[in-house]
Amino acid sequence: MSLGFLATVAPWRAWPDLWAFVALGTVLIAAAVSDVRTGKVYNWITYPAVAVALVGHTLIGGLAGREGAMGLAGSAAGFAVGFLPLLAAWLAGGIGGGDAKLMGAVGALAGWRFAVAAMFYGFAVAAVLALAVLIRRRRLRRTLGSIGRFLLLLLTPSKPASPAAADSPKIPFGLALCVGAGLAIVEVVAKGAMARKFILGI
Predict the structure, then answer these.
(1) Alpha-carbon span 78 to 113, nearest angstrom
(2) Where does the pLDDT of residue 119 fall: very low under 50, low under 70, confident under 90, or very high at 90 and above?
(3) Torsion angle defined by CA atoms of residues 27, 29, 91 and 134, in that order, rounded to the nearest 10 degrees
(4) CB 160 within 8 A of CB 154
(5) For residues 61 and 69, is the Cβ–Cβ distance under 8 A?
(6) Contact by Cβ (8 Å): 188, 45
(7) Measured between alpha carbons, how far apart are the two ends of the chain, in Å?
(8) Helix residue ranges per DSSP H, the chain
(9) Across the strands, what pairs with 69?
(10) Does the pTM of the predicted model rise above 0.85?
(11) Rounded mean pLDDT of 162-174?
């Protein structure tokens, strides 16, 4: 009997981590609504998601994981890959702390490969949103000029100031990450539940 048939009649048998993607979808919807409405992704969304991920993957896959199930090690690795890069951006003042915790939750639920793909898509979505905002507010030329001056100052011994102005338009970065993770879910569905590689070839 083929794996595809098993996935059709009983997807939880062929894809033990299916529950994690259901939980992930719920988290992404809650985080996207929160970010659009308040500009924040709250701890009551991210902390329970990480806890559920770590406990759930441990119960289903054990410590080291098994075929089709990440286990605690895979969930912890996903959390680290999703959280640590954005933690650095958060500490540098580039994003909000909720965004970093959100990506940690995404990685803990779906694994490190998924986290990398979700970040790739999320940053792409954020770039498109930023460009759209700049064009709409007719500030694209001014912003490009600021970035150009910043890059030139990088060649000087003095520390350049940030190219972002105090009144620079903001984008809902948490929403962009949610959309990026949603696109990664679409890729999982398109390639099959047992797919191991995403657009980046990892």
Answers:
(1) 7
(2) very high
(3) 170
(4) yes
(5) yes
(6) no
(7) 29
(8) 3-9, 11-14, 18-38, 43-61, 71-91, 97-110, 112-136, 140-153, 173-191
(9) 66
(10) no
(11) 61
- 47 close to 73: Cβ distance less than 8 angstroms: no
| CA dihedral of 112, 119, 49, 129, whole degrees rounded to 10 | -170
**Residues near 34 by Cβ (< 8 Å), separated by ≥ 6?**
40, 41, 42, 45, 174
Amino acid sitting at position 163: P
Q: What is the pLDDT, as a whole number, of residue 155?
A: 53
The predicted-structure confidence for 41-92, as pLDDT tens digits, reads as follows: 999 999 999 999 999 999 988 888 777 788 899 999 999 999 999 998 888 8
| DSSP 8-class letter at 157 | S
Alpha carbon distances (Å) from 157 to 93, 147, 148, 153: 23, 18, 17, 8
Contacts of 69 (CB under 8 A, 6+ apart): 16, 17, 57, 60, 61, 62
- Tell me the Ramachandran region of residue 66: left when phi exceeds 0, alpha when psi lies from -120 to 50, beta otherwise: beta
Q: Rounded to an integer, what distance in angstroms lies between the CA atom of residue 147 and that of residue 154?
A: 11
Give the tokens for residue 31.
């985080």
For residues 117 and 103, what is the distance between their CA atoms, to the nearest angstrom? 11
And the tokens for 148?
A: 């150009």
Q: Residue 54: count other Cβ atoms within 10 Å of its Cβ.
A: 17
Locus of tokens 């959280």: 83
Which pLDDT tens digit goes with each residue over 133-155? Answer: 666 666 555 544 444 444 444 45
Q: What is the largest CA-CA distance in the chain?
A: 67
